[in-house]
Structure formats: C-alpha cells, structure tokens
UniProtKB/TrEMBL annotation:
Highest taxon above the source species: Bacteria
Name the UniProt record assigns to this protein: Preprotein translocase subunit YajC
Spans through the membrane: 12-30
Membrane-protein topology: Single-pass membrane protein
Family: Belongs to the YajC family.
Source species: Zongyangia hominis
C-alpha cells in the first residue's frame, strides 16, 4: 500500500509539474517585464515639468504649459493652440533632462 501512495504522488508531480513550470515562465517572460515598464512610464509621467515636449498616445506633439493633478495643458503648433489632456494619455517625454542625459563619468587620472 505504501508503494502505491508513493507512485501516485510521483504521477501527480509528473502531471502538474509542467503546468507549474509554464506558469512560472509566463510570469518571468510576460508579467514581470510589463510591470517594470508600467512603473517606468508612471515615473516619467510624474516627473514631467512645464516646458517639456511630449507626445501623446494619439500622436499629438506639444509643449507642457500647465499641470494639475490629473490633467495637463499642452500647446501645439505654430498658432499656439492649447489642449487639455489626461495625464495617462502621455506616451513619451521628448525633452532630455540633464540628469538622465549625462551619465556619471569616472574621474580622470592625471599624470604628474
């Protein structure tokens, strides 16, 4: 009887092992990178400043004129037309910030 219990446990592991492995792989291949990207986009949206050039998810390019908690106002085109957008509609920030653009340079050694 003990032999049969051990044999059924091995059978259960062989049946459900691949399913568990697939779920773990799906987490590391799909879910984890998506959450990392969402955090990065959220950080970009929260670090917007007045004067930044942005692109919306609809492809509209403009410069940030004013910001509120959930909305921003952008200025587009040469006629300076203004649009109010939801903050979640911002896709990219096209303005390079100095802290992001200039990586830390190692100290140069001078010979004497």
């Amino acid at each position: 009887m003990l032999l049969q219990t051990g044999n059924t446990m091995a059978t259960i592991l062989y049946q459900f092992g691949p399913i568990v492995l697939i779920i773990v792989l799906m987490y590391f291949i799909l879910i984890r990178p998506q959450k990392k990207k969402e955090k990065e986009v959220q950080r970009m949206r929260s670090s917007l400043e007045i004067g930044d050039e942005i692109t919306t998810i609809g492809g509209i390019i403009g410069r940030v004129v004013s910001m509120k908690e959930d909305t921003i106002v952008i200025e587009t085109g040469s006629d300076r037309s203004k649009m109010r957008l939801a903050r979640w509609a911002i896709q990219t920030n096209n303005t390079p910030h100095e802290a992001e653009a200039a990586p830390a340079k190692p100290a140069e050694k001078t010979e004497k």
